[in-house]
Amino acid sequence: MAKIHGLVYILVGLFVSIFSWRLNYEKLIFFFYAGWIFVFIGVVKLIFNLIKTKMNKKEKIHHKSVQQHVKFCHNCGIALRQQAKFCARCGARV
Fold first, then answer.
1. DSSP letter assigned to residue 86
2. Interatomic CA distance for residues 40 and 24, integer angstroms
3. Cα–Cα distance for residue pair 39/80, rounded to 1 Å
4. Model's pTM, two decimal places?
């Protein structure tokens, strides 16, 4: 299922609210408020997307720092702990 961007929600909500207000507010009051609900959903989606993006950036930075502290076996190439003196797979001295 395709994800809809928050700006699309905001634009559609504003369009529906403005045109229902301009055409006939008394008869189209449901659409007026439904448009504002769409605007609210769009703002919430944008905020959550911003938070998610910041969390992913922090995770990538943390992953890079963890990756720098990993040693690899010269014989078989397996990742080892920093304190390891021998390879857990092949037994070669690191």
1. B
2. 23
3. 51
4. 0.58
